[in-house]
Amino acid sequence: MKELNKINFNFEIARPWFALSFFWFIIIIFLGIVMRFSFAFNVVLPTPIEFTRHAHSHTAFWGWAGPGFFGFILAILIDETKRSRVYENILFWGIQLVSFCALLSFILSGYSKLSIVFSTLMVFFWLGFSFYLLKFGKKIKHSSSLLVYIVRLAVLMLVVSTFPTFFIPISVLTGFGGEVVKSIAIHFFLDSYSEGWLYVMSFVLLLFLKKEEPNLELTKFSKILLLLSFPILILVSLRSSVFLFPKSISVLIFTASLLWGILQIIVVSRLIHKELNYTFLFVSILILFKAILDIIVGLPFFTLFVQSKMFVLLYLHVKLLGIMSVSILIFVVNAYFSNDNRILYSKRIFLSGVAITLMAMLVIAMASILPSFVGSSLGLELSWLWQSGQILAFCAALPVIISVLILFVFLIPQIREF
Fold this sequence. Notes:
Blueprint: H1 2-6, H2 11-41, H3 49-77, H4 85-109, H5 113-136, H6 146-162, H7 167-174, H8 178-209, H9 220-236, H10 247-271, H11 278-297, H12 309-336, H13 341-374, H14 378-381, H15 383-416
């Protein structure tokens, strides 16, 4: 990729992070297929479905997305002359070990004391990464680059997401604070991490997918948007627990969701020009769709959506599978591969599978939400639609994992060359 040379992308640093991230991505797709198979054909799994869902989502956060972005940031912002390989190895292998232990604990016991212990351990590695970046980052301290400012915002939200995790194990082990406070802490932890860290980092990769110079200078307008984004993201991270707050705070949270949706539309609209490549257009459309969902949630008539599990799952899949995963995977593939028809076909199969999966999730969400608006009697009539959506999601996930396996097989020998 031409752009990587302009910002001195260090392939050596990124290589292990990307390789292991791909491995974890295959694991979470497999877990997703297992769950879709269970839903579509009414098959009872050996462990409760909730345990598998927690393992699926948390591994996506910690094994696939987080380390993938860590590798990307280290590759562009770490000063090679000051780099500490020992510190990086501790971060890398520590994250891999904790991710593996957390995966097993979630599958075997769900949200238990054991899984929360591993979740808390992971937080220390996030803080360690943030400290390492601040100490050795060659551009993070003094730069007017739009890319670096977005990274700063994302890393700041990563640090903020760690705050409630120190309270969660205390609450679980001692009962301090009660269920309400514990629920708020857990949801803030997950939402600030996924929305403030992972999703914001996706905008960095969007600059690369646009195939223009990513090291753009920060304009006054962009700086205002970034300054507004931080307090808005803090409030948006409380959205899952909105009904646990007094009405005045709930209004602020819904307003923040509305503003966050508008901000995303403004950012994407300013990036869209002529001569777009299909990957950038694909991700941009999904960002616009997610922004519309954020706006809908901020409107009084649709606040019920926040309580719908299927709507939340649709939202998470649009954000994590559609936007974030596509951004990382296509960036890595474009960085390590030249024009190869086998890779090109695999990319197209992957994008097609993701698109169909998200359409299936939309069908499932609508089949679950519509009865709440038009009457409960419609629920039975729409049960076939829900089942059809599950079968479609299962079928769409198969080409996704096949294409990722193909890319993984081609990726390993390629990145060894670096």
